[in-house]
Predict the 3D structure of the following.
Amino acid sequence: MYRSFMIYLSEAGWARGMVTNWNFAWRTAKRFVAGEKLEDAIQAIKDLNDKGINATLDHLGENTTSPAKAQKATDTAIEILEAIDHAGVSSNLSVKLTQIGLALDEELCAQNLHKIVETAMKHGTFVRIDMEDSPWVETTLNLYRRMRADCSCENLGVVIQAYMYRSANDITHLMQDQSRVRLCKGAYKEPAHVAFPKKKDVDTNFDQLTKQLVDASFASGSPHISSDGKIPPIPAIATHDDQRILFAKNYAKKIGLPEKALEFQMLHGIRRDLQEQLSSEGYPVRVYVPYGTEWYPYFTRRLAERPANVWFFISNFFRR
Ligand SMILES: Cc1cc2nc3c(=O)[nH]c(=O)nc-3n(C[C@H](O)[C@H](O)[C@H](O)COP(=O)(O)OP(=O)(O)OC[C@H]3O[C@@H](n4cnc5c(N)ncnc54)[C@H](O)[C@@H]3O)c2cc1C
């Protein structure tokens, strides 16, 4: 009920208009967002890199409403790839396809994605296509496959959400060409005919999908993370859930997958203790570092994940 309401708010224009005008809301959002400018994000990444942790950088924005805005988002993604190279930081890029035009025109989005992937290849870095809500899953996977075939490269990966019933089947297909997959639980409100409504079932499926990824990685020679930290291994287990992480570690150990072939990913501002602990155990750790002015939907989804975050939000109101 709480989660559904918060996710409804994340999509409500009236709430966005109101909340983004509150200074204390931005103060709270800053726990999860590196800042409004690219320099802020690069600085956050430098701090992570100093601790041996890699990053994936995201310019916040989704559901772009005009081709000109989709073009601008594409130009920004290219700028980010250049800035990563220029700053010499260990980071790759995450993009949402609706930000670069998927909701407007699939071909326009394909062209924009193509430009981004070409730039990534030029700079020897990697692009992860984030996964959005269920109406976009099929098209996102189709575009991912098309780009991989076009570039025949390792520079592109995708995300699978454990709450979706279809995910085991999607991973089976993605493993045919050793795709690099970020596995997460799923952040949107989905109907019961497409996604498991109960958290317990999502968690069970998460472990099953982890097993599938770890097995597939082992079968294809356990590719390690690249030495510069930019190109991730096949399984990237994106969660802050101790039990899911323990399962992944134990299963990988059991079948003999080396630490460097199993990445853990977390969100900026969440479970820093765990990020550092996993890194000290020898696993590659990557933090998702978002920046920009379009922080409202991302921030509200973070509130949806944890009711205690609302108290943090309210306490910032009283600190005005
Ligand atoms: C690197 C990364 C990339 C992601 N990319 C996508 C994507 O492309 N598409 C998509 O749908 N979703 C994405 N997500 C979000 C994901 O689907 C979940 O919504 C989110 O990670 C919370 O689930 P959890 O696995 O941490 O487990 P949960 O069971 O929700 O949480 C486990 C524990 O983690 C901590 N925790 C979790 N969330 C928070 C929070 N917001 N604030 C404070 N503590 C918290 C708490 O201690 C909690 O008890 C991504 C997540 C990560 C880490």
Observations:
- The first strand starts at residue 54 and ends at 59.
- The chain has one domain: 33-294.
- The pocket of flavin-adenine dinucleotide is lined by residues 130-131, 159, 161, 182, 184-188, 238-241, 265-267, 270-271, 288, 302, 305-306, 309 (CB under 6 Å).
- The mean pLDDT is 93.
